[in-house]
Amino acid sequence: MTRFSVLDLVPVREGGTLSEAFADTTALARAAEALGCDRFWVAEHHAMDGIAGGATSVVLAHIGNATSRIRIGSGGIMLPNHTPFQIAEQFGTLDALFPGRIDLGLGRAPGAGPELQRALRKNLHQAAEYFPQDVVELRALLTGDYDLPIHATPGLGAQVELWMLGSSLFGAQLAAKLGLPYAFAAHFAPDHLDAALAVYRRDFQPSEALAKPHVMVAMNVFAAETEAEARLLASSQQQSFVRLRSGSPGKLPPPIEGYTDTLPVQAQAMLAHLGQAAAVGTPAQVREQVAAFVARTGADEILLCGATYDAAARIRSLELTLEACETVLAA
To answer: The Luciferase-like domain covers which part of the protein (predicted)?
Structure first.
């Protein structure tokens, strides 16, 4: 049985405010809970005008207060930006506030230029080299598996569900070695999807937290009553992808009809490549595309992504997607 969850970047739209972005994310989380999604994740990004989830644990605390049952977590925390002790305290606090609901997805990518490194007072590329050790230390701070010279309070004993995130073979290998569930970021980096999942499943070593491999794969999904409307909704995120890849990121732009037809061949090819981990269209079309993706990956869970300029349209897209995918859920 395939389960569905939601990833949100707290997008800030052109002409919108930070307060509106947080309100939209909160409304989406409530909708995801009401529709029966398993998890609602927020991703850590910094110094980007169009993404407001940088203080990830603070955002999660707000979402936790606005919901009551759905699991909430990071998709993910970029551990090289922090110390394991800080993250143990933050997510230990979240677990104490919202017991049994906290996920901690961890990523390695620094994703930062020299300006952000100076702002964070970190050599992020050097810190990324210690990522495996930091993950083990963070897990020990939460579980007490090793006798560390200091205890995190909050943190020690917290029932936080750790996840390894990745878009390459490195994350798959580390998740397998540590016996952690694995989430693959196919929504923006699908190149190594099949190989990474194969490596993870082949090399998985059971742990106290997880007896067998467990995979979640992220994909962009836009559903609407007509295919044309769905493609129009998707054009805002497509514009953001193109701007990001061309070095000029910004706030989430309004949709443009026929957007991809206006692009040079290279940009069209980039979007088509990302489209292998996407479903765009009517509910029937989305059901078919999601089912094919599940069949390809064998995913235990699908992480639904896809920012829309109109926040209400994303909630409607989520409603249509989950209603259409009932047969996928039962498969």
So the answer is: 3-300
